[in-house]
Design goal:
Chain lengths: 417, 417
């Protein structure tokens, strides 16, 4: 089987000049890799006609699939569409369906369709229009001589929607791709090197056609098995077998599999056990609640939170005893235990969680340096408290503490009688 | 003056396959842009000799400066050095100074120098060694026929140290560079095409040496002026003059300049006017509080929030009247006004904000489709309510509503007597 190669091409001065971070191409690489298409090059060029046309021609020589993002806005510095029109020698024609879609898009938002936006519906005659249900610029799919050019908006959620709904299925259909099975095992609470030591022997014994990758991110490590073969069924069996061996070794750190992040796993646990949750978050400032409520349907188990950022609010709205705050301070085991217990009682939930810490850069003392964080879990029977010593960076402390709290919910529920 | 062009080249399968995010090239672009070197292309290739050699040759045709990162590790899949050796037809020779440095580096960490690491000190004879004080792979500076090739490690802090201490000063010395001044004007509350129409005449009248770029992101649009010239002072004056003309046209949407996002601008406004803030956020689920508290020192003006995710909590913890909820529902002007007013009173703050809406996918009714959101501002004198009709996607609704609330804080404070 001939391998299928892809090149990713981003267009726009804003990426070349470093004004925005390109998060698109990493995501696209992963998606292509998952279906067996190999990315051989990534190229970024600016808003210049010659540069763009050269990049098209070079990419077409190297790759079977050229995925283009950016340069589709309505303004005069957006050149992708005129360049594609020139490259494919195909004039722009008003696409009636696209026009209806962009008109409806504006109408649904109560906004007037401007002439600039109307022109976004004019597309090269040679392309197939790909619907953009979450934005104004349609995608364009060009198929010539077994080479695919696909142009998408640079806005990440618009691009992702188009990739998932249209581009990936079309590519799978168009090219003969190898059989690949990925299995992602999601762990929380330990770092990459700790896990690597725990599973070293297992990793060494993996068969040649199964590869392991560590994908660490803030507060968690994903393990990805990539299995190459002939029969998807057989690969799935093998992946499940290997996963079972992993569970024997590091099962207590595994919170889930596949795409679902920890907040979704927590949501499932709470729903299954018919439990409700409330949170008193101080140093995390709303981030834990944001994660919990990012999950559709979370209102079934999440009752609400209080963010008591000052001493006054901790006392008046959460009933923390003034003596506790005075004697031990806000960042202490005594206060965190009261916070978790009180929010649980006041919000009438099964579980109450709490965070309090020195996120930094201010607020530190010699005994409580930046990164000192207390978290707590409370239910009908008990209170679990935990002290964390995190980093010196505010945003890291907020994120890492949030992940630790979500893990503590998981552990608390698991050990619940 | 002839412009100086740069190309950024990253080498390594881990970037092509999407296993790591490339944060280097954004930073490098900004640094080069700041000293007047224009990045005309970014290229990523994998660990393959032919791909790397081709990329070198192509880059040398296009650019004056080729900055290479990655592929300098000690293992056999690290190919940048052998490829440079081949490309410059220059054999590897042990560099005694580099050997001393890598030996000292290992000694200082109490580690044994392996043969693999020793070989990291062998460099092509044609290059100048650039010290790497924080890692084991030295940089390599090649200067031929007015083209500069500079190879650096892919580890971000090693690359940054090398760029700051050696590469940028050398480039400034080597090339005659223009004077450039950037000015970023940050707007909120209107889309790119609305702004583009409002400032079309102004944009058309911009002098040739001042360029405008639109940088839209969720809920805001940044306008960047890039001014080219001879005298920095004069460029700053011109940028300020053009900014003044922009203020005349779209001043009410401008919330700030430069690097600070809206949550920082709000924080400054609140601090300056000595005002305190509390929030009752329902549909945004903690996201507004998270943004407010992401700012160091926010505890000076932010008292806290309540996230009343259920009817019960809205009534019990926020004092929303049962009649209001029953008659108008949680997503209504009546409820949102009570929420903002009550959180302000209960938390004893100058300003109280509130959000309530159908984030989706569930919870919609024919009269209140997904994306219907009410937001409110309350202070000592008045309550402002606003209805938004956003998108069909939960995470977008949360983000866009959050940006709208932050903008409403700004507008409320501005109009405050």
């Amino acid at each position: 089987m001939k391998p299928t190669y892809a090149e990713l091409l981003t267009i726009g001065d804003e990426i070349l000049f470093g004004q925005i971070t390109d998060t698109n191409s990493q995501w696209m690489s992963q998606q292509l890799s998952d279906i067996g298409i190999k990315v051989i090059r990534k190229t970024s060029v600016g808003d210049q006609v010659n540069e763009i046309l050269n990049a098209f021609a070079e990419a077409e020589k190297r790759a079977d699939v050229i995925l283009i993002t950016g340069g589709l806005g309505p303004t005069s510095d957006d050149l992708t569409k005129p360049c594609l029109s020139q490259y494919f020698n195909s004039p722009l024609v008003m696409n009636e369906e696209a026009l209806q879609e962009v008109t409806a898009f504006f109408k649904s938002r109560g906004r007037e369709l401007t002439e600039l936006n109307r022109q976004q519906a004019a597309l090269p005659a040679a392309c197939e229009k790909i619907t953009n249900p979450v934005g104004t610029a349609p995608g364009m799919w060009f198929d010539r001589g077994n080479k695919i050019f696909m142009s998408m908006p640079g806005v990440p959620h618009e691009m992702k929607r188009m990739m998932r709904d249209h581009v990936l299925p079309r590519l799978k259909n168009k090219f003969e791709l190898p059989v690949i099975h990925h299995q992602v095992i999601r762990t929380i609470g330990q770092g990459e090197s700790f896990l690597a030591e725990k599973i070293a022997n297992w990793e060494k014994a993996l068969p040649e056609h199964i590869k392991l990758a560590y994908l660490p991110s803030l507060g968690e490590v994903k393990l990805r098995l990539t299995c190459y073969g002939e029969s998807l069924e057989k690969l799935k069996e093998e992946a499940n077998h290997q996963t079972q061996l992993l569970i024997d070794r590091i099962g207590s750190y595994i919170y889930g599999y596949g795409e679902d992040p920890i907040e979704v796993a927590i949501g499932k646990l709470l729903s299954e056990k018919n439990l409700t949750l409330s949170i008193a978050e101080s140093c995390t400032g709303g981030n834990v609640s944001r994660m919990i409520t990012s999950v559709p349907g979370s209102s079934a188990y999440f009752q609400g939170s209080i963010i008591p950022y000052s001493y006054e609010i901790k006392m008046a709205q959460l009933g923390i005893k003034p003596e506790t705050l005075q004697e031990y301070g806000a960042v202490s085991e005594q206060t965190i235990a009261e916070m978790a217990t009180n929010v649980r009682t006041r919000f009438h939930t099964n579980i109450g969680m709490a965070t309090s810490g020195i996120a930094g850069p201010g607020g530190a003392t010699p005994e409580k340096p930046v990164g000192t964080v207390w978290i707590a879990y409370a239910d009908e029977q008990r209170v679990i408290t935990k002290k964390l010593q995190l980093s010196t960076e505010r945003h890291l402390n907020i994120q890492l503490a949030s992940m630790a709290v979500l893990n503590l919910i998981r552990l608390g529920i698991k050990e619940r009688k």
